[in-house]
């Protein structure tokens, strides 16, 4: 599978899901349990992605400059800093630790 | 077909004469612009991270034009960055699962902004967290429609322009690790997660999923930890565990 194949399949899937909301009759996901699972699914995937992106190195778990960078980003989100500021600060922290650490 | 009258101002409006209609409309426009611009700007980080993950500029731009849902886009390139082409299946599955919430948004928005097939396709294309949130925050259906289309249009145009800019910047950076872009990816996911943690149940799922992902990471192929961690949401959601609102 080439990168383009991946991109086309994933884009088709997400676009189909968006259209699905407008095509299927109101019902299934309006019910409490499916709606709750859909909400929590987003939370679980994002939390797992944070771990993989921050601690992962292939299949190994590694603590490196990414960890303090994430902590700085968390502190910035806690004081309601904008997304782009927190993301840029995380990059700067990690880059600085690698350059001077 | 629809159970509710589709976006009929007069029918859906609450008989509240005290509502300042001009003020409400101005508020809807203000919110659309504020949310739209703030969201559009971080397309820069997507563009740069996507190129850092090994996608080229065209592939990156294509994702923002067609996929156009930030969480799935970040997830796709994030899983590919961690696992390479071998993690392709997991990358697609993660992106698709993060797109499931857009089905719920579509169902909520359809009575307000749906219509002809062409209109439904356009509306579906820009059905994302931000357009839905701004629309649902409005009191009047007319303003909800305005907020949806305006926010969606601003984010779409802005997100695609900033994606291109970010991709070109990332391309010029060379060694993106030296610039800390790998750390920026975690911070980006945290930013998407943060506003969803208001309820205890969501916090419990986040912690559980993070622990599961870390525990299984050494034992499974890159890409799979995220999918395995998603089971935490199924389990907690199905049985409604950790729901602090539930009456005893």
UniProtKB/TrEMBL annotation, chain A:
Q: Which residues cross the membrane?
A: 6-28, 40-63, 69-97
Q: Which Pfam families match?
A: AzlD (PF05437)
Q: Which UniProt keywords apply?
A: Membrane, Transmembrane, Transmembrane helix
Q: Does the keyword Transmembrane apply?
A: yes
Q: Does the keyword Transmembrane apply?
A: yes
State the protein's name.
Branched-chain amino acid transporter AzlD
Q: Which organism encodes this protein? A: Agromyces mediolanus (Corynebacterium mediolanum)
UniProtKB/TrEMBL annotation, chain B:
Record's superkingdom? Bacteria
Protein localization: Cell membrane
Membrane topology listed for this record: Multi-pass membrane protein
Q: Which Pfam family is one of this chain's hits?
A: AzlC
Query: Segment Disordered: which positions?
Result: 1-22
- The transmembrane segments are 33-55, 75-100, 146-170, 176-195, 202-220, 226-242
**Could you give a single Gene Ontology term from the biological process aspect?**
L-valine transmembrane transport
Annotated Gene Ontology cellular components are: plasma membrane
Q: Which UniProt keywords apply?
A: Cell membrane, Membrane, Transmembrane, Transmembrane helix, Transport
Q: Which family does it belong to?
A: Belongs to the AzlC family.
Name by which UniProt lists this protein: Branched-chain amino acid ABC transporter permease
- Lineage of this protein's species? Bacteria, Bacillati, Actinomycetota, Actinomycetes, Micrococcales
